[in-house]
Amino acid sequence: MTDGAKTFLQELEEAVSQGSPESCLRALWHATDLLIAGRYSEAEIWTFGEVIGRLAEEIELESRCRLAKRLASSSNAPIGVVSKLALDDSIDVAGPVLRQSERLDAKTLVATAKTKSQQHLLAISTRRSIGRDVTDVLVARGDQKVLRSVAANDGARFSEFGFFHLVKRSEGDSILVEHIGLRRDIPRHLFQQLIAKASDEVKRKLETERPDMESEIQTVVADVTGVLHSKFGPASRNYFDAKRTVEKLHGYGNLNEAKISEYAQSLKFDETAVALSLLCGLPIDAVERALIDPNREMILVLAKALDLSWSTTMSLLFLGAAGHRITSQKLDDMRSDFAGLNVETSRKVLRIYRSRKETLECASKLHRLPQLHSN
Questions:
Q1: What is the pLDDT of residue 90?
Q2: Whole-model pTM over 0.85
Q3: What angle do CA 251, 252, 258 make, to 5 degrees?
Q4: DSSP letter, residue 254
Q5: What φ, ψ does residue 156 adopt, rounded to 5°?
Q6: Which H helix or E strand runs over 130?
């Protein structure tokens, strides 16, 4: 910091302790201008922040708005000052920094999203980048405008919890369905749930957005239970990465119960589904449906056929459950059902199911062949 800047800050300190409200306000704008125009270390910015914070303690709404606009895009903005502005009840004050300031940390954004108005949440939803901790709050508390905005934001990142709530709250909102459906980071199983809940709306939206896939979309929406995101919608990068990783592991003979348990406990749905598909010899869509089916019988049979422990099976059940939650009573009932299953019997059921799937696939392929004879 230059000697002139140091002297000026000392004068500002005197203005805070001795000056009138008018002189303090003039000093505030001088300090802000000096801060924005200069190049300072974090320690020096902190010193400016202490002075500006004291000068701004009693300023009126109009001046707070002006200060927020000045600091919103500044890389020198004092973290303490912009954090206080972000938590201002007035959206005219908080809005600029919530939308633009790169100096706000996730903790402040989460606190604002948890306690302030929908306008505050909407401002946050337009940020250039938004972390998962923040979007978790936005999708839980946000109104329709907030949900649409954050779902359409390419810079927003969502946890599985966040995507689950987006899909859950999208019913009846075709615009939100479209925004969610076009995200390439949505997990495959949640994309299936999205389509299943709003097939008519999704059909219209996807036909508009993906004319190249119109024929497949029409088939998909007619029978959503057999639909996979990778076959008709924007493919999940996570799925293909998971597929390559798990198949490589399987090729080396290292895909086992411990890996399945690890994937399920880490809420890695794609990895878990691919692993079960490989070990059970079932198509990926069948395994995905078994994982998310409210009737848990099929996943219990698959787990028993693989001779998995109850601990691993329980992880699979929680992975596919809505919100990853199961009541203790339901869990006890499923444990009892699982204990009553026989390994060999479950393997017979699995073989029958595989055989049936293969027969249906062959019939489907024959149905699609050109007809050589007609009446």
A1: 96
A2: no
A3: 100
A4: -
A5: -85, 140
A6: none
